Automatic annotation (TrEMBL), chains A, B:
<dbReference type="InterPro" id="IPR051540">
    <property type="entry name" value="S-2-haloacid_dehalogenase"/>
</dbReference>
<dbReference type="InterPro" id="IPR023214">
    <property type="entry name" value="HAD_sf"/>
</dbReference>
<protein>
    <submittedName>
        <fullName>HAD family hydrolase</fullName>
    </submittedName>
</protein>
<dbReference type="InterPro" id="IPR023198">
    <property type="entry name" value="PGP-like_dom2"/>
</dbReference>
<dbReference type="InterPro" id="IPR036412">
    <property type="entry name" value="HAD-like_sf"/>
</dbReference>
<dbReference type="Pfam" id="PF00702">
    <property type="entry name" value="Hydrolase"/>
</dbReference>
<dbReference type="GO" id="GO:0016787">
    <property type="term" value="F:hydrolase activity"/>
</dbReference>
<keyword id="KW-0378">Hydrolase</keyword>
Length: 228, 228
């Protein structure tokens, strides 16, 4: 493998855990209006309905929380609760970046390959996290895309002169980091995170260019095995 | 001039007019709580305070409207009003793109130069407008940046091998399209829009590489005059 692609959220650093703790606070805010499972299901549904409109990222998540709260209370939501939702989102936006165990070491150990960070979502928020991660300088290229589709990967390959079969993408999401890369002719390794958003889950594909690891710390060994 | 840079919002297509009509609806929503000027001033202040956090774009504007309404009513904002603000923002996100008079013709007339679209803001929303504009295919390159700083322009120049003194940026904003380009060594032409956001205004610089036009339709003639 000449090129190693790294997903960022929940592959290099924590992300979903902040969404989950915010969701827990959101459910507490609405207790009395609906049971926690119904709140979570309605929020997930609102996020999915809004994905084409808002894209991925915290600002869209904030707007979906406000909308969900209004819908669940039939607009009988006190202003304080709306203000609380805004404050929760602003806290997420200001949150420090926590690198996952082994992430920095794996990126460092692969310095003899070309390393490219490929992440999706809100550009401003992703740039903030990349800067705070301290890893920005390690990458030969950084790509922030709106959706990780096969076409989006093909465009990244074209932009950097990447030969797909010499590219390995490492990430925690089957739907974003694995399947579209395989479709675009690349190799992919799934490194699941304890918390992976429902929208990102999927079954293991039966594919010769698919791999799976438990820990990102094992990525350098996999790369060495694939290209001795 | 070998390269012509085009700003998008309020240079090629209407943008501020939609913000203004939404702001008028927002002021109507809050009438009884504050006079219109105070509502507008408070919204502008909230937007400025949130710029580093939310960046440019409609989602951040929606969140700033909700926050402003809460602050002006001391959280006594009915849920219906919050729902109305979300609906106004979603309408902006779905709004068709109206090209400004002469914009398509000017872009077309400069087909013997290299044309690059340089816009700032929310990537998803900018991509939507670029696609709807019907102009995407006319450009040799499209750059969506977070802030139009001298460094951001220098990075665009480096990425595309642009010699600054052979680059002319055309746009409606002194602070985003003119001053940072001059600082980065390029040429700039201000084409004011009737409605230019307060945050973007500024005095004409006394600078040999600065130009001013009343209408984008005159841009091809200016380019011909500068590089006969």
């Amino acid at each position: 493998m000449e090129w190693i692609g790294f997903d960022a959220d929940d592959t290099l650093w924590e992300n979903e855990t902040f969404f989950r703790s915010t969701q827990a606070g959101f459910a507490r805010l609405l207790e009395g209006h609906a049971p926690p499972e119904r709140i979570a299901a309605h929020l997930f549904d609102t996020e999915c309905r809004n994905l084409a409109r808002y894209g991925y990222g915290i600002k869209g998540f904030m707007l979906s929380m406000v909308q969900t709260a209004l819908e669940l209370t039939e607009n009988r939501l006190p202003g304080e609760a709306v203000a609380e939702i805004l404050a929760m989102g602003q806290e997420m936006l200001a949150h420090p970046v926590h690198l996952l165990e082994g992430a920095a070491g794996a990126v460092e150990a692969l310095s003899d390959r070309r390393r490219i960070l490929i992440t999706k979502g809100d550009v401003l928020d992703q740039e903030r996290k990349i800067a705070l991660s301290g890893l920005a300088e390690r990458f030969d290229a950084i790509e922030i895309v709106q959706h990780k589709t096969p076409d989006a990967y093909a465009a990244v390959f074209a932009r950097h002169g990447i030969t797909p079969d010499r590219f390995l993408m490492a990430g925690n999401s089957m739907n974003s980091d694995v399947l579209p890369v395989l479709q675009a002719g690349g190799n992919a390794v799934l490194i699941p995170h304890d918390l992976t958003w429902l929208h990102e889950q999927g079954d293991d594909p039966d594919h010769p260019r698919f791999h799976r690891l438990e820990r990102i710390a094992d990525l350098p060994a996999l790369v060495a095995k694939l290209t001795p």
